[in-house]
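Justification of resources, computational component.

The compute hours requested in this renewal are based largely on the per-chain cost of generating structure records like the one below. Each record pairs the submitted sequence with a full structure-token output. That output is archived, and it is also reused by downstream analysis tasks.
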Amino acid sequence: MTVELFVSDESLIADRKRALAEHILRKLTTEPASPQSVLAKARELTHVLVRTPEVWATGGAAAPRYLVRLTVPGSWSNNSEFGDHVIPLITKAIAESETDQDRLTRDPHCVIQIVGLREHNLGALGRKLTTTEITKIMTQEYRESGDHAEAPEGYAVDPVCGMTVELSTARFTLTHDGTDYAFCAPVCRKVFAEEHVVPG
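The structure output for this chain reads:
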């Protein structure tokens, strides 16, 4: 995931830009219900860039403006729940750097664009990667650790990424060897199926 934050405030010094970038990175990769190994790998694969353009023209009040371009695998951007989660999270992270922390939910001064990359248009390790491969990289340590927490009553733990999933609303499930599994996203279900379900 790449976050490009364009800030209209030309007086923003490098230290404040770095602090803002690190704050957004922490907010995007902190989830109490996720294993630390998955979050650490997510941080390693997430990049936050903060830039002040040489020229910025827009109407309205002269208060600092923010334009965020969030580039992610297309399967993430095609899921409306992703936007429901990430847009308020990024807006809040940026607002926390302001004296008036409600301004960005009151005025349209923080625009967030989610750009989805087509499959095979993201690469690392010297090669192109699929969304499934990225998920495998992020969750490998957790999956291999065997250190899986017990889920509270009415919940399940996604066996791929360790997220807690409410069973009554679980949209992605799979039964394997008589056990029902719930997943936080279709890509986690796909990773599990590829590793555990032998094609018939």
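The helical segments are 14-28, 36-45, 74-77, 80-95, 103-106, 131-145, 186-196. The longest strand covers residues 66-73.
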